[in-house]
Amino acid sequence: MSKKIITIMILTSILNFFGCKEKNEPKKEKSEMDLLIENSIDEFNNRTIYKTLTSEILDSISDDKLEQAIMDNIDTKFQDGEQYTLDKISKLTNGQQAVFSTWWLEAEVNNGGFNQFYFNSSGQFAEMAEIGFMTIGAKKFSELTKRANKIYSENKERLEEFDDGTMESFSESYKDNPLNDLDTEFYNLYDSEKIEQLRIKYIRDNKNEFTTE
Fold first, then answer.
1. 207 to each of 72, 168, 192, how far by Cα in Å?
2. Which of these CATH numbers, 3.10.20.30, 2.30.40.10, 3.40.50.300, 1.20.1420.60, describes 50-209?
3. What are phi and psi of 83, to 5 degrees?
4. Fewer CB within 10 Å of terminal CB in the chain, N or C?
């Protein structure tokens, strides 16, 4: 999992949603939505990245930017192009591990379901995410992740047969996949547990786990 993937995922999602325009298409006046997207991308690309986080800095960051600030700070511990590894992430504080692992699991499941989470290298953080959800107070998400981990473990050998690096095999891996049923359960849990709010509250209440002074 490359350290630049966060930016790529966001930009790709935006482009996929609104569609890429042909290069030779006549220029049109930018709509309000075009400007909003452009400004959002510019704001993201020009955001402040903190290599060091203090209690005062954390207090100064608004809630809507707090999780990204933590993820960026963790990212600074890796060299350009270096992959996230379980060994290195496991050396972080419990709070950092919880934010990192639950953030990635949530991003992957919302993008392509539990199957995609385990298919990608992010799957190495599955058990960490199970513990992480419990750490931030998302008990139901933790229990669901525990079930998903068990199902994946029981079907790992069969699912790994599709891991040949092609999109065709990846698509085939969804057929008769027992993980599929858990995706809807995951989405429905948002009605009872707000992961983002729980992560933010945990960070605010446990700043010492995220300061790097």
1. 16, 44, 25
2. 1.20.1420.60
3. -85, 145
4. C
**Ordered mean pLDDT values, 10 residues apiece, the chain (213 residues):** 45 46 59 79 86 96 96 94 95 98 98 96 97 98 98 94 90 94 97 97 98 84
Amino acid (one-letter) located at 189: L
Which long-range CB contacts under 8 A does 14-22 form with residues at least 24 apart? 14/40, 14/41
At which residue do the structure tokens 């350290």 appear?
3
Q: How far is CA 50 from the centre of its chain?
A: 19
* pTM of the entire predicted model: 0.82
Amino acid at 97: Q
> CATH 1.20.1420.60 region(s) of the chain?
50-209
The vertex-9 CA angle with 6 and 13, nearest 5°, equals: 145
d(CA 101, CA 133): 9
User: Residue 176: which region, alpha, beta or left (left: phi > 0; alpha: psi -120 to 50)?
Assistant: left
27, 36, 37, 41, 161 from 30: Cα distances, Å: 9, 10, 11, 15, 47
Q: Tokens 């990608």 identify what position?
A: 120
Is residue 136 within 8 Å of 208, Cβ to Cβ? no
